[in-house]
Design a protein that fits this description.
Layout lengths: L4 E3 L4 E2 L18 E4 L15 H5 L11 E12 L7 E5 L11 E5 L14 E15 L2 E16 L1 E2 L2 E3 L13 E4 L3 E5 L3 H4 L1 E6 L3 E2 L1 H4 L5 H13 E5 L26 E12 L2 E13 L13 E11 L18 H18 L3 E8 L8 H12 L4 E3 L5 H6 L8 E8 L3 E3 L4 E2 L13 E7 L7 E7 L21 H15 L11 E6 L7 H8 L3 E2 H4 L8 E3 L2 E3 L2 E5 L1 H4 L2 E6 L30 E5 L10 H12 L1
Parallel strand pairs: 10-11, 14-29, 15-17, 18-19, 25-26
Antiparallel strand pairs: 1-10, 2-9, 3-8, 4-5, 4-7, 5-6, 7-8, 11-16, 12-13, 12-16, 13-15, 16-17, 18-32, 19-21, 20-21, 22-24, 23-24, 24-25, 26-30, 27-30, 28-29, 31-32
Helix pairs in contact: 5-6, 8-9
């Protein structure tokens, strides 16, 4: 790609002499040689290669285990107590774009030559070439110093990158400036490890969101993600270093995914399984604004929302901590506040919910607690669908025996249930996927044709206990179970389980499958249509995983209902937010933000009362008359 990167043709002053080394004068002191304990004098017979020759064109140095003499300028000093345990040395280059012109030099805190290797120093080092374990399967080429001679101050050129290179290896250890915007993918490791995951050219996408797993197209997306991905690191080792004492600007921990790093400068490093820029200058950040709640056309609105484990203890203020969710009553109040704020902002008539505690439907249940909180906050009228059977009433659990279940809540002043709810138990539903819940609803005003809403939550992608066909095949573990669940769901819905007689139905929920994966392909093959495709939504996503966006939460409409769809939207109030913005996090604040790890979705349908055949002529005449 033309102009994707360049190495500055001339030297750039690296540091003002006032900042360098404490040298006698800006012209540099007389040379001073310092040895590691036990090291002898320089051997004139040793080779003196350029750093590019030491690095070579492959990941492994062609001069491994050989003793050499190298000259260069210290471009970054990470040898302090919290640093990376060394410095980076760079020379003016060997003219080969396939080799790096820099190398890592380990420097112990009490090394006799440490003061000679401060940032900006030009040094001559005698040492042995090694490949260090950089973590995550990465080998880091390094020069283990035996003897260091201080030569004064030095200058090197900076490498400017405007697009991601096809191969990062030739830039390992070099002083780099990113002269292009980087999109923040995740700040999940910022407070723990001091790093942010970012990418060139916008967001990264889950390959299976846009292609079938295992296909050439999916592999191409994964390869493109790997090329565009870059970790921005703070140049410190260890965990849980205070951000305020590091290089990140104030407010970095609150960045949403989709925010932009407008400029970044540092050393291109290769550690912990990924290429990363060890920052030497505070980066310029442009935070992504929080979006307002979406609005969709249509007289009847349906929302779907994974609550991220709403557990309410014993329902009487005790019973904490629970196996999941809030750890105490204070956290539960904060969690409910966020969930209520989300539902209020979306203003649906019906809402399908996932990850409710499976504790029945009594007054102490989690679904009752949510409905009570909604009505208390206003406006009132919220009710829930009670799908409890005899076994459920005896055990206080159900449907299904999973720790969590799905649920349906609705505005009783806008819609009413039409008939009884239906559930599908057996097979994968119960022990793996959560039991689906279907209910027909009729609006209190307008067209009284029932709408069937089917809430779902398929088996997660986690690999615990997965064996055989359920091992990861490119779509995470348990794809076979999710696919079987989708197949059984489609077959069940063909039987009209709610006995409503309506062909207007919508499947919503957390399918734990991206759009290109088998469960969604099965449902589409059965005639169900992706509501976001029908509505023409651009690049929808509801979940972020390892900096890549995709949809785990879906809405599929029957062909008849597709004709009534007027809008489909996701509210990116959760997936882009840092986890610390949640109800239990350090950045928690009142409001809907990070009420879950999944984004809610909202659908709008046309549900106006049909015109009677005998009135069509008169109605048409009225329109013409109004027009005239």
């Amino acid at each position: 790609m033309p102009n994707s990167h360049r190495r500055s043709p001339g030297p750039t002053p690296f540091l003002a002499c006032a900042l360098a080394l404490g040298l006698v004068a800006c012209g540099g002191p007389p040379s001073a040689t310092q040895h590691a304990p036990g090291a002898g004098a320089s051997d004139a017979s040793l080779p003196e290669p350029l750093i590019g020759e030491v690095q070579g064109e492959r990941g492994r140095s062609p001069m491994l285990d050989r003793e050499v003499i190298v000259k260069g300028v210290v471009t970054a000093d990470f040898s302090d107590r919290e640093g990376l345990g060394g410095v980076y040395l760079q020379d003016s280059g060997d003219g080969d774009p396939g080799t790096s012109d820099a190398i890592f030099v380990p420097v112990a805190a009490r090394a006799p030559y440490r003061d000679a290797m401060r940032q900006g120093a030009r040094v001559r080092i005698r040492g042995r070439v090694a490949e260090l374990d950089g973590g995550g399967g990465v080998r880091l080429t390094a020069l283990l110093p035996d003897e260091v001679e201080q030569l004064g101050l030095g200058e090197v050129g900076i490498t400017e990158l405007r697009t991601p290179p096809l191969d990062w290896e030739p830039f390992e250890g070099m002083w780099v400036r990113i002269d292009a915007p980087l999109t923040v993918g995740s700040v999940a490791d910022l407070e723990r490890h001091g790093e942010i995951l970012a990418s060139f050219d916008g967001r990264m996408w889950q390959p299976a969101e846009r292609a079938e797993p295992g296909s050439d197209a999916a592999r191409a997306i994964a390869a493109d993600n790997a090329r565009r991905r870059l970790v921005l690191d703070d140049g410190r080792s260890g965990d849980d270093r205070p951000l305020e004492t590091g290089i990140w600007p104030l407010g970095a921990a609150a960045l949403r995914s989709g925010s932009v790093v407008e400029s970044a400068e540092g050393i291109l490093d290769h550690r912990h399984g990924s290429f990363r820029l060890q920052l030497t200058v505070p980066p310029a950040l442009a935070a992504q604004a929080r979006p307002p709640a979406p609005r969709v056309e249509g007289a009847l609105r349906v929302a779907s929302f994974n609550l991220e484990n709403l557990f309410n203890g014993d329902g009487k203020g005790g019973g904490f901590p629970t196996p999941r969710g809030a750890r105490d009553p204070r956290q539960l109040d904060a969690q409910l506040g966020k969930l209520v704020a989300t539902v209020q902002a979306l203003d649906p008539d019906i809402a399908a919910l996932m990850e409710l505690e499976n504790d029945g439907y009594g007054p102490a249940s989690s679904i009752a607690a949510l409905v009570e909180a909604l009505n208390r906050a206003g406006p009132g009228g919220w009710r829930f669908v009670d799908a409890c059977d005899r076994a459920c009433r005896r055990s206080g659990r159900g449907p299904g025996d999973d720790a969590i279940r799905v649920g349906l809540v609705y505005r009783g002043d806008r819609v009413r249930p039409a008939g009884k709810p239906a559930t599908l138990a057996g097979g994968p539903f119960g022990p793996r996927s959560r039991v689906p819940l279907a209910q027909a609803f009729t609006p209190l005003r307008g067209d009284d044709t029932p709408l069937v809403v089917v809430a779902n939550h398929l088996k997660s992608k986690g690999c615990g206990e997965a064996e055989g066909a359920d091992r990861d095949n490119g779509a995470g573990c348990w794809n076979a179970v999710r696919s079987d669940s989708a197949r059984r769901l489609a077959t069940w819905l063909e039987t009209d389980p709610t006995r409503s007689g309506s062909d207007l139905a919508v499947i919503v929920g957390d399918m734990n499958a991206y759009a290109g994966e088998e469960p969604l392909r099965i449902l589409k093959a059965a005639g169900w249509q992706d509501a976001f495709e029908v509505a023409g939504a651009m690049a929808p996503y509801s979940y972020m995983y390892k900096g890549e966006a995709g949809r785990l939460d879906h809405a599929l409409v029957s062909p008849a209902l597709a004709a009534r769809l007027r809008g489909a939207a996701e509210w990116h109030s959760n997936a882009d937010e840092p986890r610390e913005a949640g109800y239990a996090g350090r950045l928690h604040e009142a409001g809907p933000w990070r009420s879950s790890d999944h984004d809610p979705l909202l659908l709008g349908f046309d549900w106006t009362a049909p015109v009677a055949p005998e009135d069509e002529t008169a109605a048409a005449g009225a329109v013409v008359s109004t027009g005239n």
